[in-house]
Write a structure and sequence with these properties.
4 strands, 268 residues, 3 domains, mainly alpha, 47% helix, two-stranded antiparallel sheet
């Protein structure tokens, strides 16, 4: 972790700290907190053409964000893409970063477009999920750009129709995250999508689809559809291990078949 390595040829954005003797060292590396390769963000030698921003980057964080986003437009491999994305998404939301995400979201490079989508999504702009929902096949570099955890963390009910469509993706992790988000949003509108995923055969998806009483973690008001049977088969306090899920899946499939119409009729 603290190997003595030559910096030559490793161009990028470095972070240094000055010791009491006035000697500069790489931040975190000598203490063993980070390997040498992650002590800097790799950017092209001489920098990259800066992305224009509507708001001037006045703070240090905004200036770093512009450098990282500009370098992303000329990334050369998966590792560089992943490191630059980690740095950019870790800065937080400002007017400058919001503009950078909007620019990246219009990129013709699918990976860069996903970076922009992820950043906007983390800023609670769920409308950007429309593009993801319209292309539910496998998406390259999902892990590199951080879209999967961003979708897992969606809690805005306005995202429900997009999440419902994403739940049919051929990408298993994307499906799981969409169903997880639907489970936590847990409004009347999410129920048809959760019910649809019950027979998926994926234990993670079935667990989240089964928790139709999950909203009971907070006060929900009257519960006209709650019965001793729904309490018995609720997973609010448990988790299936894949061996005993058949009775739960069958109960909620039958429950939905007999209750769907009543729920629709009770809608305000």
């Amino acid at each position: 972790m603290s190997a003595n390595k030559d910096l030559k040829g490793n161009y990028g954005l470095w972070f240094l700290e000055k010791g009491g003797s006035g000697l500069w060292t790489l931040l975190g590396v000598l203490q063993g907190r980070y390997p040498f390769e992650f002590a800097y963000f790799p950017v092209p030698k001489g920098g990259a053409p800066a992305i224009a921003t509507a708001s001037p980057p006045l703070t240090l964080s905004d200036r770093i964000a512009v450098e990282l986003a500009s370098a992303l437009e000329v990334y050369t491999d998966y590792t560089q893409l992943s490191q630059l994305v980690t740095g950019l998404l870790g800065i937080g939301g400002t007017a400058v970063t919001q503009g950078l995400y909007q620019t990246l979201d219009t990129s013709s490079d699918p990976s860069l477009k996903l970076v922009g989508t992820t950043g906007l999504l983390e800023s609670n702009d769920v409308s950007v999920l429309a593009d993801v929902a319209n292309d539910t096949g496998p998406i390259a570099n999902l892990h590199a750009v951080g879209l999967i955890p961003a979708i897992c963390g969606v809690r805005n009910p306005l995202a429900t129709p997009y999440l419902g469509k994403i739940a049919s993706s051929s990408d298993a992790e994307l499906r799981r995250c969409a169903v997880m988000a639907l489970d936590f949003i847990h409004t009347r509108d999410t129920l048809p999508f959760l019910a649809q995923m019950l027979p998926s055969g994926d234990p993670t998806i079935q667990n989240h689809s089964n928790i139709l009483n999950g909203g009971a973690l907070t006060a929900q008001g009257p519960t006209p559809f709650r019965t001793p049977e729904t309490d018995k088969y609720s997973l609010s306090r448990g988790w299936l291990d894949g061996r005993d899920d058949a009775p739960y899946v069958q109960f909620w499939k039958s429950w939905w078949a007999t209750t769907e119409g009543k729920i629709a009729a009770s809608a305000p």
